[in-house]
Write a structure and sequence with these properties.
Blueprint: H1 2-27, H2 37-54, H3 61-75, H4 83-86
Helix pairs in contact: 1-2
Pfam family, one: TetR_C_11
Organism: Mycolicibacterium crocinum
InterPro entries: Tet_transcr_reg_TetR-rel_C_sf, TetR_C
Length: about 90
């Protein structure tokens, strides 16, 4: 099936890398031990694939900033940067 092949080629390699990076960050106490690492490792590349393949939109700074600050950091139990930090 094409969907499975795309997942194997696009999503899974990124998921594996993200899972490893987030587990290392948890070991260093940089993210919460309770963070949903396996779920986030799947969701992050899926959101990127959806943005580029389905919506056919580019990865703009505003999108990436919102994705990281408003979705990923809270999901990892990390406070997002304040407006002053972003300046």
């Amino acid at each position: 099936m094409i969907t499975e092949a795309a997942n194997d080629v696009i999503v899974e390699p990124w998921s594996a890398a993200l899972r490893l990076l987030m587990r290392r960050a948890a070991d260093r106490h940089q993210i919460a031990d309770t963070a949903a690492i396996d779920t986030l490792a799947q969701v992050i590349p899926e959101m990127a694939a959806y943005r580029s393949l389905t919506q056919r939109k580019p990865f703009e700074l505003a999108f990436l900033t919102a994705l990281v600050d408003d979705v990923l950091l809270p999901a990892l139990s990390i406070a997002p940067p304040t407006k002053e930090d972003r300046s």
